[in-house]
Description:
single chain, ATP Synthase, domain 1, 2 domains, 5-stranded mixed β-barrel, 7 strands, about 30% helix, elongated, ATP_synth_F1_esu_C, ion transport, membrane, ATP synthase epsilon chain
Amino acid sequence: MSEMTVQIVTPDGIKYQHKAHFISIKTPDGELGILPNHVNMIAPLVVHEMKIRRIDKDSHVDWVAVNKGIIEVKDNTVTIIADSAERERDIDISRAERAKLRAEKDLAEAEKAHRIDEMERAKVALQRAINRIRVGNKY
């Protein structure tokens, strides 16, 4: 069976690098599954739960909370450059839940005061916190 190298890079450095048979990512246009020998491409990513089926055994799946970025697929190498990314095993659920509560509070206050910029920031923070909680609960 063919394989591809999957690498996730953030401003803090390489967060993930393994061989895989399949990955699932999400772009603004929807979900996309990538298999080895995929056509070369570049696409933007949204906040989402990335699924990586590793080559060591079929049941080995890694989940990564990806917070926006871009994906490049070229010659069986998948590179994700993300604002931030965390593997399921590295997510502190209680910290993510506190971030969710903070974002919900900030969103409510911004909506009450009709501050559009603050509302957008709070929505993004809430989306990221929920994504981290979902991925963290898969561990």
